[in-house]
Amino acid sequence: MESELFDIVGFENDVMEWSDYENEVPPLDDPRWIRTDRPPLQGQVRTVKVYHPFYMMIGEPFWMLYTPVSSSLNGWDSHPEEIEHSSFVRCSIERVLERNDYKAWLRVKVLEVLMIKDYNIRFPVRDGSNGYLEDFEMFGKPYIFNYRDWLFINAGAQGDLGVWGLVKRMDSQYHMLVYGDWGFHRSNAFGGNILLPKHQIEGWIEQALQNNRYETVE
Question: Which of 32, 38, 85, 173 places its Cα 20 to 30 Å from the Cα of 196?
Answer without folding.
Answer: 85
